[in-house]
Design brief:
Elements: H1 2-14, H2 22-35, H3 38-54, H4 58-72, H5 78-95, H6 98-110, H7 128-142, H8 146-163, H9 166-184, H10 187-203, H11 207-223, H12 227-241, H13 251-263, H14 267-284, H15 290-300, H16 310-327, H17 330-346, H18 350-361, H19 371-384
Helix pairs in contact: 1-2, 1-3, 2-3, 3-4, 4-5, 5-6, 5-7, 6-7, 7-8, 7-9, 8-9, 9-10, 9-11, 10-11, 11-12, 11-13, 12-13, 13-14, 13-15, 14-15, 15-16, 15-17, 16-17, 17-18, 17-19, 18-19
């Protein structure tokens, strides 16, 4: 039982074969049930839940998360109850239910005072305090609570570095700090966090996070304007990732790859990349990024060439807006509104463009100095004088 669990951990995090860990965790679960070992039963359920993430079975992951939470519901061990809520929050976040994910991550964080001061990594290999925080940051960001998300990121990086736990710090940077800074448009911070992750994964050889960091560096370079070099690095990293590109963490680089391909005139390939990612999201119920993929596809359909179609682009933007609203993902809603407003303005309808932006902008209560909100404000000023 212990050997099976160790094999599951090493496949998942040590040697870059995360998608092969399922049988080891299934064997651990079976043996734990036979031996009546509650400790390894929970380890196995945790491992199987993460394995379902890695293999794109998010509904099955939710089943394991609920099973874990049900077992620990009446436990006297506060850490186990926190882990149950943390698993539910993570799964719901990936499924796209940001409101319910926020509820469960809040329950996790409300019990942080029950934790010992030292990192809690014995059973689940992550510091629970730090891992709860980086998912909190992601969820807060998508809900449109940008200032709170950025404050959590900054604190999380400091605590993650101080913990000295190598695997946890990878996720602090890769799951939280890098993507949130990138989405905020703070490319200096995004590059700094990426450099930290690259140096950390070279000092502590953790292959998949190193490959992801290389892909992320390509994204930042492209966003800074060096699209050719950034795209080359991004493509190379995704090729190096191989089957690992189907892990949830690689969905953001795939979306950025599609967008970059459009910028260099490879619109057909960009659309194929976006469609492949959207099909993946639909097949796997991996919906947290679906709204942005629809928006990226719409932007690709506005590039010059044979695929250019204002009607098709508008349909994509409408779909992005619909998906975002259904998930409570105000940030994706804003991005969709910006793209749709640009389209309306190009059609000579500045009043409609202003109305679209004003409706979404008015729902924000913070984060007004982040890149997309500054852009929306500038666009509204422009359209109000057109």
């Amino acid at each position: 039982m212990q050997l099976s669990a160790a094999l599951g951990w090493s496949l998942m995090y040590g040697v870059g074969r995360a998608r092969e860990a399922g049988p080891a965790w299934a064997a651990t679960l079976q043996l734990a049930e036979q031996l009546g070992d509650s400790d390894y039963l929970l380890r196995a359920l945790w491992g199987l839940c993460i394995d379902q993430f890695n293999n794109g079975e998010f509904r099955k992951a939710l089943e394991f998360a609920h099973r874990f939470a049900d077992i620990v519901a009446d436990s006297s061990n506060s850490v186990d109850r926190m882990m149950g809520d943390r698993l539910l929050a993570t799964t719901l976040h990936y499924l796209g239910d940001q409101r319910l994910a926020h509820h469960h991550i809040g329950r996790t964080l409300s019990r942080l005072s029950d934790l010992a001061a030292k990192p809690q990594v014995i059973r689940f290999r992550f510091d629970l305090r730090a891992s709860a925080r980086y998912f909190q940051a992601r969820i807060l960001w998508l809900l449109g609570l940008a200032d709170q998300a950025l404050n959590v990121v900054e604190r999380n990086v400091e605590e993650g570095r101080a913990s000295g736990h190598a695997l946890t710090f990878c996720s602090v940077l890769g799951q939280g700090a890098c993507p949130v800074a990138f989405l905020a448009g703070d490319l200096d911070a995004a590059e700094g966090y990426c450099t930290m992750l690259l140096e950390h994964t070279e000092r502590h050889p953790i292959r998949l996070w190193n490959v992801w960091a290389r892909a992320f560096r390509g994204m930042v370079m492209a966003r800074r304007g060096d699209i050719a070099a950034g795209l080359t690095l991004l493509r190379k990293a995704l090729e190096l990732a191989g089957e690992a590109r189907f892990l949830p963490r690689f969905l953001l680089p795939l979306g950025e790859l599609a967008a970059c391909l459009g910028e260099v005139g490879e619109v057909s390939l960009g659309l194929a990349t976006a469609d492949e990612a959207l099909a993946r999201c639909e097949a796997r119920d991996e919906r947290w990024y679906a709204a942005e993929l629809w928006r990226i596809k719409g932007e690709l359909l506005r590039h010059p060439g044979e695929h250019r179609s204002a009607i098709a682009a508008e349909q994509c933007f409408d779909k992005a807006y619909e998906v975002a609203r259904g998930q409570g993902a105000l940030f994706w809603e804003l991005r969709a509104a910006i793209s749709l407003a640009r389209l309306r303005a190009s059609q000579g309808r500045p009043a409609d463009a202003h109305q679209i932006l004003a409706f979404v902008y008015g729902q924000f209560t913070e984060g007004f100095e982040t890149a997309d909100l500054r852009l929306a404000r500038a666009m509204m000023t422009e359209f109000s004088t057109s």
